[in-house]
């Protein structure tokens, strides 16, 4: 039930990971970095590659789960505490992307301001996904791949002719803004933590690391291409254009008579985003189920989704405050969990081997 | 049992998805809906205030929509005007379908982004909507007799279509491009200047609104837009059979610097600008040369193959270079040709080609002179300096438009 295939991990990085970065991220990044937004995003992706490489290195040396590694090194109680902390982190990290998508849905898919309840069906999907474990995550990745591939390419083809890529020049003049943009955007780059929790849940194949890194590179390239097209179209007014996937393709001349047929692709990408937003909630429930196996998973799924639904309803009018909290205040939390934790997990494999050797010697 | 439960859950989730995406919660009463097709903004009678006119298409149960203009007078902001229209009429004005923002001439005397900001802030107004400035007031323009249907905004939109831009007749701008120019280092932009021609008789005159305007302005014969054959002219001017209808001319272009009116380009200058900078790739132009001791006027069909305006530095000095490669074909001339000359219509005599190049150069010189005098950086010279030559930016940021030398590399060839 909790197994995921390598192919599905690759699809996640190539197709689901980029989808979550196409809403408000380009506009907020442009605010900090102006035309240097590709450099800031590139820094984030480079840091993610390091972490991802480390986790893949770890996966090559053990077929045990992260929980088992923690348990072997520090004992069951410590492993449970770490998993509960990670569950809290996953739950927390899922909140802002949901608020972001709720804003997108209510602003773009509705002509007038709809009821706050229109977003609640999402939690039914998320609840279902949480009950099914990592296997559903893999299935979602399988479904997301063709949806994303077709829709993303179509939107880029519609938008690219209207982009002036000269707007990305001069490179590197924003200076400190590039690092600020990368740091403030770190909460959107927590995906590199996920493979740590896939350890022991997927079967290694030939060139596993190469395949995952290639898929990650494809996903990162998709985001960079999108950012380049987005800034090429909007240039100095890019900061105004939130919900960017709804805006970049609308300048196609034929739409004046055909209407916004690009919304078909935007809908498809919205579905992929929904799958993507479920992943941290699924991992939250996965952590809790592993740490506290005696409690029925239904309880965790209901609690996690109930908490998020309540938060989304309560924070309906405070999007900007939450955005500032995530971007400007809590980047350190994301650095610790998404980047330092996987790196700190590297010695676990060695520690276990040493312990075995000592036992053998004794 | 577990499988059945799962299936029921999946079906329920799918139904919820359907509701989620189908906007079923967002239904609004059609009787209270007023689809705003265009917004006109004029200077109010009180200092600093606005008159905002909404051209509204009102859908009704029979399916035959009606048009109406509602004006909110002397409001401080566009948002206040929208609220006033709502209060006055009981209609909820939805701007999602607004495809045209028309500014009255007097509004261009102040920074137009004082009120255009409303459209940039709103998630409900598409920034792909057309924007233009009109002679007189937008209210008067919207009240004119449209030659096609009830909505004047649709007739104006046709004059400002992308097809018109591709043939070089009009400098079409949408809200996004105008805002980009305003917020760029150049702080410059341009809008088509729409003029209302009252009760033009369509059919039988042989001319067009564009042509009439060009002649009225006394535009020179070379590369002016006034030689367009009727078949390629503005569709608004052709419709209506023998009926009298107002038509719209947008052959002039108003230049803006820091959001305010800076200058106006005539029809010939607009065409020259379009040939070198915008997406115009096919145009008509007229050249008069001396042949056998008499002036002969050639109408040319011009197809632009390549165009580029680049800023380079030579010996530390800025040089703005216009590179244009075009093919030309004779569409008509003013003399009685022999049958062989008519058959060779694809081949343009060498003197005519050189005259056409010279005509474009002369027009571009006039445009550049206008931009230098007005400060409107029409060719984005400051932006080119910022993007391509940042090391010279500090030295030339303020003076590059005035100090850059001009180089032309224009070559016309015959169509093959």
Features:
heterodimer; A: mainly alpha; Hydantoin permease; disordered C terminus; B: 416 residues; alpha/beta; four-stranded mixed beta sheet; 13 strands
Summarize the structure.
With 362 residues, chain A is mainly alpha-helical.
Your description of this structure?
In chain A, α3 packs parallel to α15, α4 crosses α16 and α6 (121-132) crosses α12 (263-291). Chain A has one domain (6-361): Hydantoin permease, CATH 1.10.4160. Chain A is built from 16 helices and no strands. Helix content of chain A is 72%, strand content 0%. Chain A has helices at 6-19, 25-33, 37-61, 66-74, 76-108, 121-132, 134-159, 176-184, 194-198, 208-234, 255-258, 263-291, 297-314, 319-329, 331-344, 346-361. Chain B contains 15 helices and 13 strands. Chain B has helices spanning 2-21, 78-89, 113-121, 138-142, 152-159, 162-166, 175-183, 209-216, 235-238, 267-277, 339-343, 350-374, 381-388, 393-396, 400-403, and strands at 33-43, 50-58, 66-75, 92-94, 100-104, 130-134, 188-201, 244-257, 260-265, 282-291, 294-314, 317-333, 405-414. In chain B, the strands form two sheets. In chain B, strands 1, 2, 3, 4, 5, 6, 7, 8 and 9 form a nine-stranded mixed beta sheet that branches. In chain B, strands 10-11-12-13 form a four-stranded mixed beta sheet. The termini of chain B are far apart. Chain A binds chain B through residues 105, 107-112, 114-115, 117-119, 121-122, 124-125, 128, 166-167, 169-170, 173, 233-237, 240-241, 243, 247, 250-251, 253, 256, 267, 270-271, and chain B through 9-10, 12-13, 16-17, 19-21, 23, 25-26, 28, 92, 94, 96, 120-121, 123-124, 126-128, 162, 174, 176, 179-180, 183-184, 386-388, 390.
């Amino acid at each position: 039930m909790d197994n995921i295939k390598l192919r599905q991990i690759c699809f996640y990085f190539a197709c689901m990971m980029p989808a979550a970065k196409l809403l408000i991220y380009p506009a907020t990044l442009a605010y900090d970095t102006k035309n240097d937004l590709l450099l800031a995003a590139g820094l984030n992706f480079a840091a993610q590659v390091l972490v991802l490489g480390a986790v893949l290195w770890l996966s090559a040396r053990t077929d045990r789960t992260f929980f088992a590694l923690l348990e072997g090194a520090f004992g069951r109680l410590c492993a449970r505490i770490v998993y509960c902390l990670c569950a809290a982190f996953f739950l927390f990290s899922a909140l802002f992307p949901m608020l972001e998508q709720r804003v997108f849905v209510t602003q773009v898919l509705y002509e007038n301001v709809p009821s706050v309840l229109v977003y609640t069906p999402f939690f039914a999907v998320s609840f279902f996904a949480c009950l099914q474990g990592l296997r559903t995550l893999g299935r979602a990745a399988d479904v997301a791949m063709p949806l994303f591939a077709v829709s993303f390419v179509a939107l880029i083809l519609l938008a690219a002719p209207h982009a002036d890529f000269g707007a990305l020049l001069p490179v590197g003049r924003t200076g400190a803004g590039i690092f600020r943009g990368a740091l403030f955007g770190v909460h959107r780059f927590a995906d590199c933590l996920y493979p740590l929790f896939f350890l022991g849940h997927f079967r290694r194949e030939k060139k596993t690391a190469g395949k995952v890194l290639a898929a990650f590179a494809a996903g990162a390239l998709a985001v960079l291409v999108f950012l380049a097209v987005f800034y090429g179209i909007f240039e100095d007014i890019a900061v105004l254009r939130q919900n960017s996937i709804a805006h970049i393709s609308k300048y196609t001349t034929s739409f004046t008579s055909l209407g916004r047929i690009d919304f078909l692709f935007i809908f498809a990408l919205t579905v992929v985003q929904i799958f993507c937003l479920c992943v941290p909630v699924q991992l939250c429930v996965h952590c809790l189920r592993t740490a506290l196996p005696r409690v029925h998973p239904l309880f965790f799924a209901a609690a996690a989704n109930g908490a998020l639904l309540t938060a989304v309803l309560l924070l309906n009018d405070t999007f900007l405050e939450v955005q500032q909290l995530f971007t400007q205040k809590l980047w350190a939390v994301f650095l610790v969990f998404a980047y330092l934790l996987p790196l700190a997990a590297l010695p676990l494999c060695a520690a276990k081997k040493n312990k075995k050797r000592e036992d053998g010697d004794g | 049992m577990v499988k059945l439960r799962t299936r029921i859950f999946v079906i329920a989730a799918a139904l919820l998805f359907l509701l989620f995406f189908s906007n079923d919660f967002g239904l609004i009463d059609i009787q209270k809906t007023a689809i705003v097709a265009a917004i006109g903004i004029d200077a109010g009678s009180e200092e600093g205030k606005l008159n905002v006119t909404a051209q509204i298409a009102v859908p009704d149960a029979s399916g035959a929509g009606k048009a109406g203009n509602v004006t909110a007078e002397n409001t401080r902001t566009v948002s206040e005007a929208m609220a006033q229209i709502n209060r006055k009429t009981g209609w909820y004005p939805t701007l999602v379908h607004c495809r045209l923002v028309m500014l009255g001439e007097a509004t261009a005397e102040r920074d137009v982004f004082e009120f255009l900001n409303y459209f940039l802030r709103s998630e409900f107004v598409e920034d792909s909507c057309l924007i233009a400035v009109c002679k007189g007031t937008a209210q008067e323009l919207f009240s004119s007799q449209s030659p096609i249907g009830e909505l004047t905004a649709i007739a104006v939109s046709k004059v400002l279509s992308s097809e018109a831009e591709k043939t070089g007749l009009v400098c079409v701008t949408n809200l996004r491009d105008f805002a980009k120019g305003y917020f760029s280092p150049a702080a410059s932009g341009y809008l088509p200047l729409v003029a209302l021609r009252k009760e033009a008789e369509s059919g039988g005159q042989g001319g067009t609104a564009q042509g009439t305007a060009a002649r009225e302005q006394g535009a020179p014969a070379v590369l002016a837009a006034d030689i367009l054959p009727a078949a390629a002219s503005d569709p608004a001017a052709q419709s209506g059979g023998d009926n009298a209808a107002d038509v719209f001319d947008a052959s002039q272009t108003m230049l803006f610097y820091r959001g305010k009116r800076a200058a106006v380009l005539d029809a010939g200058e607009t065409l020259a600008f379009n040939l070198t900078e915008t997406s115009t790739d096919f145009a008509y132009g007229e050249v008069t040369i001396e042949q056998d001791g008499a002036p002969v006027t050639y109408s040319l069909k011009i197809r632009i193959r390549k165009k580029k305006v680049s800023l380079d530095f030579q010996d530390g000095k800025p040089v703005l270079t216009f590179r244009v490669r075009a093919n030309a074909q004779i569409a008509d001339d003013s003399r009685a040709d022999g049958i062989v000359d008519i058959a060779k219509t694809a081949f343009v005599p060498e003197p005519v080609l050189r005259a056409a190049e010279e005509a474009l150069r002369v027009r571009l010189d006039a445009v550049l002179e206008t931009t230098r005098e007005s400060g409107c950086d029409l060719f984005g010279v400051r932006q080119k300096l910022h993007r391509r030559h940042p090391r010279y930016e500090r030295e030339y940021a303020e003076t590059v438009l005035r100090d850059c030398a001009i180089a032309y590399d224009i070559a016309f060839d015959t169509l093959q």
